[in-house]
Amino acid sequence: SPPKKKHQCLSRSSRCGFNHSFATQMIYSDFLSPESLHGDAGFKSFFRISKCRFQRLLEDIGNSGIPFYSYCGNRSCSLEAKLLLPLKTLAYGVSYTAFSDYFHMSSTQSQEACHQFDLAMVKVYEKEYLKQPNSVEL
User: Fold this and answer.
1) 48-106: pLDDT as tens digits
2) How far does Cα 16 stand from its chain's mean position?
3) Which of 93, 71, 61, 65 is nearest to 18 (CA)?
4) How far apart, in whole angstroms, are the C-alpha atoms of residue 123 and residue 112?
């Protein structure tokens, strides 16, 4: 069998900024590239959503025009990181800060990513999935 890829870690002191480009590179290396470390089954295991469905979610939200802004000035997290962090916190039922180190986000950025994810899900899928039931459906 081929040798496994070694996951890279970037140490971060409390005074050091977050490296968003490195986080995006690791997300693609670990989960999103065709030759990813964890593959499709690993992606589904980590995020409780298939990679194909995530790609659709990424396209739907990316094309919706909803701004996923960041409070970190010129440096900004990728849209992939801002969508995967809330999915992973929902999958594991933990606080938004539990995975903020992997995604290289501060606790404020993590909280904002989860909040924006909630708003985006409602705005993008409200008409299709979140409509009020009619009298026949009740």
Assistant:
1) 999 999 999 999 998 888 777 655 444 578 889 999 999 999 999 999 999 988 998 88
2) 22
3) 71
4) 16
